[in-house]
DNA sequence: AACGCGCTCAACCGCCTGTGT
DNA sequence: TACACAGGCGGTTGAGCGCGT
């Protein structure tokens, strides 16, 4: 315990920052940039340690910070990202421009956790709470908001939010002759940044390829021997820029992750072993800011083809952030998807 | 008005990692 | 290779505030 090593050397101020200190730090960094943080207090005339200066800048003084309360849309995104990333607050904050990890962490601990429990969702696992726990939560807050209406399509249990855009039973692959489980799904969230593949079939194996889901995408090569292995796989040809993936390990509850390099080589992505008692998911996301899965999947490449552009069809038309997500949205999206295919066939 | 309680949020703490020597 | 140091991160703390009694 005690002060950080940098604070031992001198008697340094701690606690809340005064307006004068803020002013000094702001003026200094605006003029010179922060450079080496440990030298900032010396050069700016502050009796603080470098770490304290850094924190103050990042969490409070930075000009690109977004002030004010979080929108519902931001909260939803945090929940989705937390389901994927856990308590990796800095990574979550990276997806929310103008928000800091500290701010998001505070919001999670003080507000979102409670809301999730009231909805019967365990905030750490994003799975439904046990019945007695739900009763306890309800008893603790009888005026809790009603459960949101969920669409009737299957949603993987570790996908807590109602904001996922599920494509049920699209994982049909007639051309590759594979056995596809009825419950196989491909879905992406409303922010259109994350793609997930899931299979919760307890009756064997399944795999599919994006190319087989979307007719215009050229068929991917795959090893026929894969058919005999208990694997769920997703083939992505011409991987989008900066693709990263995460998938659960079959042996324990940990997650593996990696970059998409192997996908660029056309290799089969060994998603995970199928576990009868547990759902199997893989998540894919691109680090490219302007990347959208819907465009990628519907078009087979990125960006949109001129064909689609000339038809002025937006495959993401139903991924409107302000809209509550429900069956209607999905229906419309699927209808639109059919339209896209019709255009390609003619 | 006084008090207690719960909540929010800024800031600190300790640990980990990367880098330079 | 070992060490020191800086930066970054997640967990925790505690001051301040609002609200109910």
TrEMBL record:
Composition-biased stretches (Basic and acidic residues): 124-139
Which Pfam families does the record associate with it? Myb_DNA-binding
Annotated compartments: Nucleus
Keyword terms of this UniProt record: DNA-binding, Nucleus, Repeat, Transcription, Transcription regulation
Give the span(s) annotated as Disordered. Answer: 121-143
UniProt key word DNA-binding: yes
Residue ranges constituting the HTH myb-type domain according to the UniProt record: 9-61, 62-116
Which CDD domains does this UniProt record tie to the protein? Answer: SANT
Q: Does the keyword Repeat apply?
A: yes
Its primary localisation, in coarse terms, equals: nucleus
The record's section on SUPFAM superfamilies has: Homeodomain-like
Q: Which InterPro entries match?
A: Homeodomain-like_sf, Myb_dom, Plant_SW-associated_TFs, SANT/Myb
- What positions does the domain Myb-like occupy? 9-61, 62-112
Q: Which PANTHER family match?
A: MYB DOMAIN PROTEIN 55
Stated name of the protein: Transcription factor MYB86
This chain's source organism reads Platanthera guangdongensis
């Amino acid at each position: 315990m005690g002060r950080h090593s940098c604070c031992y050397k001198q008697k340094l101020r701690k606690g809340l920052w005064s307006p004068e200190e803020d002013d000094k730090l702001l003026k200094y960094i605006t003029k010179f940039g922060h450079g080496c943080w440990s030298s900032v207090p010396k050069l700016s005339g502050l009796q603080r340690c470098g770490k304290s200066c850094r924190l103050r800048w990042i969490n409070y003084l930075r000009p690109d910070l977004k002030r004010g309360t979080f929108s519902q849309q931001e909260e939803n995104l945090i929940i989705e990202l937390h389901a994927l990333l856990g308590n990796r607050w800095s990574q979550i904050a990276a997806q929310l421009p103008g928000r800091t990890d500290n701010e998001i962490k505070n919001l999670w601990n003080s507000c979102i956790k409670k809301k999730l429990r009231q909805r019967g969702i365990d905030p750490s696992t994003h799975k439904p709470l046990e019945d007695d726990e739900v009763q306890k939560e309800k008893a603790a807050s009888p005026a809790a908001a009603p459960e949101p209406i969920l669409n009737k399509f299957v949603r993987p249990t570790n996908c807590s939010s109602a904001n996922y855009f599920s494509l049920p039973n699209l994982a049909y692959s007639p051309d590759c002759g594979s056995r596809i489980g009825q419950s196989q799904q491909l879905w992406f969230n409303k922010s259109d940044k994350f793609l997930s593949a899931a299979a919760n079939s307890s009756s064997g194996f399944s795999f599919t390829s994006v190319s087989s889901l979307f007719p215009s995408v050229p068929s991917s090569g795959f090893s026929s021997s894969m058919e005999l292995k208990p694997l769920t796989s997703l083939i992505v040809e011409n991987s989008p820029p900066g693709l990263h993936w995460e998938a659960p390990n079959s042996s324990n509850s940990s997650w593996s992750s990696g970059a998409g390099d192997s996908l660029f080589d056309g290799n089969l992505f060994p998603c995970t072993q199928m576990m009868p008692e547990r759902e199997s998911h893989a998540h894919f996301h691109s680090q490219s800011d302007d990347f959208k899965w819907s465009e990628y999947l519907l078009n087979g490449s990125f960006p949109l083809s001129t064909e689609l552009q000339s038809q002025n069809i937006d495959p993401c038309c139903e991924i409107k952030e302000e809209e509550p997500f429900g069956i209607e949205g999905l229906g419309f999206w699927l209808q639109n998807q059919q339209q896209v295919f019709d255009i390609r066939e003619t």
